[in-house]
Design goal:
The structure is a single chain. By secondary structure, this protein is an alpha+beta fold. The strands form three sheets. Strands 1-4-11-6-9-3-2 form a seven-stranded mixed sheet. Strands 5-10-7-8 form a four-stranded antiparallel sheet, with no helix packed on it. A two-stranded antiparallel sheet has the order 12-13. Helix 1 packs across helix 4 and helix 6 packs across helix 7. The chain is globular and about 55 Å long.
């Protein structure tokens, strides 16, 4: 079931203690991985990027450009609606279904590739661990003349398995925590941004990490993002894979159902430190 979880408010909030600090001292770019290359090349590139950044971009992913463009147009048209018209779609109830759709093909193919590189059977991430609801989250950030004085989306880690993000319009605003600072994710035409969630970190026993990221306002133009979250079923027990938690590498996370994980996650918040403290052994 696909859902629209939320959209950013049309007005900015100024939160001094969470204002964006300086970026990383040295310019760093996320890897851009060409999925049309050989499986071995792609697998190696995904593992390297995943271990260093927890984020990367993919091109030649076979998602039709027309589909991406239609989604972009739909989002732009929606956020241009008068507030009264948009209010009909608003709800605090995250169980309320909205009429949106997305594809999980790219995310699942990347998970299959990862399995071959970390010693798991190819279908390890199929079934309940990826069989939950696919959540589609569209956010809109109006321009702000002084982005340093406003807060777009606070730093957080994703609670799901893997996230596939589209950045319509190719406007900068997504930033990833790296080496004690923040780096910009430069939009690449036709690319999708991929990042790992907490469930993948637990399943791989910390081999692949869920990394904090945030969204900041752009000074000149509005920015829209659309993220598809691949989730476990609520009753799925997520735990370190036995192949990755054997002798010499004890389990770092406790086994937990995704339902219980979400209950705690909503209580402690989305910051990495808080989540780690709650679930690490």
């Amino acid at each position: 079931m696909e859902k629209l979880l939320s959209s950013a408010a049309s007005s900015h909030k100024t939160v001094p203690e969470l204002r964006p600090p300086a970026l990383a001292a040295a310019p760093v770019s996320l890897p851009v991985i060409d999925l049309s290359r050989s499986r071995d090349e792609v697998r190696s590139a995904v593992l390297r990027a995943g271990k260093e950044f927890g984020f990367f971009q993919v091109i030649n992913h076979d998602v039709p450009e027309r589909t991406m463009r239609e989604l972009e147009v739909a989002c732009v048209d929606f956020f241009r609606l008068p507030a009264a018209d948009k209010a009909a779609f608003y709800s605090e109830d995250t169980e309320q279904t909205n009429r949106l759709f997305s594809s999980t093909i790219v995310g699942m193919e990347l998970l299959r590739l990862l399995c071959g590189g970390i010693g798991l059977r190819p279908d390890y991430f199929e079934g309940d661990i990826s069989g939950g609801e696919v959540i589609l989250n569209a956010n809109h950030y109006p321009p702000c003349p002084d982005p340093g004085l406003t807060l777009g989306l606070p730093p957080h880690c994703d609670r799901n398995l893997i996230t596939v993000l589209l950045q319509p319009g190719y406007v900068c605003g997504l930033q990833v925590s790296y080496d004690g600072g923040w780096i910009d994710v430069e939009p690449v035409p036709g690319a999708l941004v991929i990042n790992f969630g907490h469930q993948l970190e637990i399943a791989t026993n910390g081999l692949l990490r869920s990394v904090e990221h945030r969204a900041v306002a752009n000074a000149a133009v509005a920015r829209t993002s659309v993220a598809a979250f691949i989730m476990p079923t609520m009753d799925c027990v997520v735990e370190p894979a036995k192949e990755l938690a054997g002798k010499g590498s004890p389990a770092k996370y406790r086994s937990i159902t995704f339902r219980d994980f979400m209950r705690v996650y909503k209580t402690v918040g989305a910051r990495r430190e808080s989540v780690e403290k709650a679930f690490r052994i």
